[in-house]
Amino acid sequence: MRASFFNIRPADTLNVSFLLFLIAITFFFHDSIRISTMLVIVFTVLIATQIALSKYGRTNTILEYTYDLVFPFFCILIIFESLGYMVHTVQPRDIDHILVKIDYMIFHGHPTVLLERFINPLLTDIMQLAYISYYFLPIILGISLKVKKNDQLFDRSLFLIIFCFYLSYIGYLLMPALGPRYTINHLHALDLDGWIIFEPIQEALNWLEGNKRDAFPSGHTGVALTVLYCAYLYEKKIFWIYLPIVILLILSTVYCRYHYVVDVLAGILLAFITIVIGNGYYEFREKRVNSNR
After folding, report:
1. 247 and 216 in one domain?
2. Which of 66, 141, 167, 221 is the most exposed place for a label (fewest CB within 10 A)?
3. C-alpha dist (Å) from residue 83 to 23, 169, 187, 276, 287
4. Considering 57, 90, 123, which residue would you say is the last residue of a domain?
5. Which pLDDT tens digit goes with each residue over 269-288?
């Protein structure tokens, strides 16, 4: 039994474990979650799909890419969407007032207000593009590793990235926060206006993300840095392309008023924890696999 457990891909066990965790939360707060039954059904279907793909995902090329790229993407997205129904059942109060105070103590002002002196439409469009690159960085890295048939490196990168996502989701559940574009919008003298792409992209993000209380920690920062770390180890050419993009992405989280600076600092810590614990788990797992051969 132990040997078979350690032969399962770590990303798969992580997915199933986190989904079981969400099912437990949904059962515990059943009376407070409006669509608790539907959530349990969705999580159960995802678990069943993960188990099936773990068994049959290498049967053909279509299933393989579904197993490695398509399903993880949709699983992360569906779980993220589900958080909107769960956050305030776990922690009823937002912590924005604490984050606002910490930022003000550090900078003797509100960072998003202080940045207004640099606002211009071209920069706003660039920053918004950098912000949404977050959705593509992991996918492009994954495709690159898949095309080169670096399966072991792909599996490790996939685990670390998913691990970072799920740690950030736990943060949203325990420490819900909306972000400065909602809580201190009345303090902003200037609106963010781009030339072409800022408004349609922000409207799309508002539709996709809604008010999920997903500011703390900055998942954009944590995931982007985790992807950058994997690219540095396994795809150096991609790393050098990603480096300026990730720097702009992190800056954009505050410039575009999605995050407080303290969110970004927490996101950096999130990436560090992901890498240390994730790699530690992998080393432990490899020793167990080798000992069971």
Report:
1. yes
2. 66
3. 12, 8, 29, 26, 35
4. 90
5. 999 999 999 999 988 887 77
